[in-house]
Amino acid sequence: MSAQRAIAKVVRAIEQAEGAGARVRRSIGTRSQRNFSPFLMLDHFSTTAGFPDHPHRGQETITYLLDGVVDHEDFAGNAGTLYSGDLQFMTAGRGIIHAEMPRKHDDGRPNVGLQLWVDLPKELKYCEPRYRDLRAAEIPSVTVDDGRATIKVISGQSHGVDSVKELAYTPVWLLDFLLRPGAKVTQALPKGWNAFAYILDGNVVVGEGAQAKKAEQYDNVFFEQEGDVIHLSTEASATKEARVFVIAGTPLDQPVVQYGPFVLNSEEEVMKTFSDFQSHENGFERAKNWRSKIGDRVY
């Protein structure tokens, strides 16, 4: 018999300004939820501004562009463009400097998406940086509950459908649920993994029976580790579809010492990272005299 996971906590992602021209709803990486191993940060962003040249070390970032166009470029010569529905998995490893700059739209609408920061296991903190892009057309999907629910299987498994490839060093599942009125879905999750469900749009009932709880738009629902399934449903009287991202990952038994874009396991490593960054050593050699072509783009 499957056991449903209980809800541990619900955090509402409150919109805040981030830089010049960006609005962000952050539900991991705040006082309410500092981190949720292996997850360090979850931002639901809406922006017309970009993120010029900046460094990272010790983590992976996963960017899911929901609407818009974003260019990226790094000091290793990698460059590319994400379009609506595309994802980018970037492993910073021992060090990377890159720029992420959205395109301007004629109608003035912002670029909207999710960015998830995932911790790297201690033994991979200093691996070589890498990118993997996943195009919208490559993502398999499955429709269940007599057409009332459609799930994009970005990473992991759902209702007999597997994702196309492994995309992150730290094992992570990412599932994108579209729930029409009256939908009812049961999703299996790996035992012992941490998992949460972020409500992008609409209202969703999370859980069944006495454990059921209504979650609203911008709520992030965190689950207990015990149990192997979660239940998601929408009321038959709902006037709009709901969209939910279910994300799970294997917890890492290690300390997290973070200073901005540097995520290591000790204060000493963080201080060494600042030194490496400033002296262009130990992974940051290519930063010397490098500037991206897109980082100075101004609209």
UniProtKB/TrEMBL annotation:
The record's free-text note on cofactor binding: Binds 1 Fe cation per subunit.
Binding site for Fe cation: H54, H56, H98, E100
Annotated Pirin C-terminal domain residues: 175-282
Cofactor(s) required, per the database record: Fe cation
Full protein name: Pirin
Similarity-based family: Belongs to the pirin family.
Source species of the chain: Trichoderma harzianum CBS 226.95
Keywords in alphabetical order: Iron, Metal-binding
InterPro entries assigned to the protein according to its UniProt record, in alphabetical order: Pirin, Pirin_C_dom, Pirin_N_dom, RmlC-like_jellyroll, RmlC_Cupin_sf
GO molecular function: metal ion binding
SUPFAM superfamilies, sorted: RmlC-like cupins (SSF51182)
Pfam family, one: Pirin_C
Residue intervals of the Pirin N-terminal domain: 22-118
